[in-house]
Amino acid sequence: MPSGLCSDSGRVLRAVVADEEDDFDADARFDGYMADLTVTFHAAKPGHVLADGPRMCGALKVVDIGLGREGLRACEVIEEVTGAAARGIGKWRGHKFGYGHAVVLSGNAGRGGAARLAARAALRVGAGLVTVASPLDAMAEHAARLDAVMLREVAHGAALTRMLADGRISALCLGPGLGLGARQEGLVAAALRAGRKVVLDADALTILSRRPGLFGALHEGCVLTPHGGEFARLFPDLAAGLEGVVATGPAFSKVDAARAAAARAGCVVLFKGADTVIAAPDGRCGVQVAAYGREAPWLATAGSGDVLAGIIAGLMARGWDGFDAACAGVWLHVEAAREFGPGLIAEDLPEALPAVFRRLGV
């Protein structure tokens, strides 16, 4: 590890920073702590991939010293989707209902783009059917833009409950462009009552942060996908632990925060960022790091998170559990961005997935 970097958290320790007002990013005095190459043995440590780790480590080389998989930490770096997970993306036989039915809930007229992005992603990742459930005033807008994705009018929570009487609906996605009114709160409540697999993103997370009763209705079939600001609204005490200067290690880490959040919520939490952490209530954890040759800066564009939510919902509709769907979904999301490259906009991400699948041999 570079000197002064916490191996558990990737945070720069107080001993390195001479003054609390010092700006580590801007102050040239700290350049000496930056490595060009970091060599580590057996496996990458959390501090290599979290927070300031990639910036301080330079290039990272992990050297195998013959220890096998024994003794690795429970938090794994997601380097590639391989084996059974890759095979699970493929389609071999059967019909559309054999690959699940994902429903994406839409906001009002003029706010439907995010739901359409999520729906397109769910369809591209292989869900057998995808429906956008929309208020009446947005139906024409959706119909003008969607073909393979179906439409269904869903005005409020009671209508969603009636829709979910169809047991073939296998996963829901709520939040992208949804809105924050009473109708939207009713939709979140109905989705959680139904006990189906559900991805909760964007506006749905804000609703959860404002309504403790709805937060208490979360269950193990849910996946929460907050960015830093949404995480702070949902789990303010955990977010506070990631702020400020720390004196000594082990420092509180993004992995610690995500695991604690997953245990509190009783469901999978995907804490987004350049160091995306996926945690399950049982302690399983994965990290997708946009560094060390996996950078995808083009994802910093409006709508890319909506596509990620749709990818995860599509995989869950196909039968994947929330943790595996979130881990694979984040990897596929980055791979699609890297496949397309500079100039990427969110609409390009679902269309880049087939090339990623071909490379996986599925």
Account of the 3D structure:
This protein is α/β, with parallel strands linked by helices and 362 residues long. The chain is 37% helix and 15% strand. It has 15 helices and twelve strands. The chain has helices at residues 46-49, 53-57, 83-89, 113-124, 139-143, 157-163, 182-194, 203-210, 212-215, 228-234, 236-240, 254-265, 304-317, 322-340, 348-360, and strands spanning 37-41, 59-63, 75-77, 101-105, 129-134, 150-153, 169-174, 197-200, 222-224, 268-271, 275-279, 285-289. It has a ten-stranded mixed beta sheet, with helices on both faces.
Write a concise keyword list for the protein shown above.
362 residues; 10-stranded mixed sheet; 12 strands
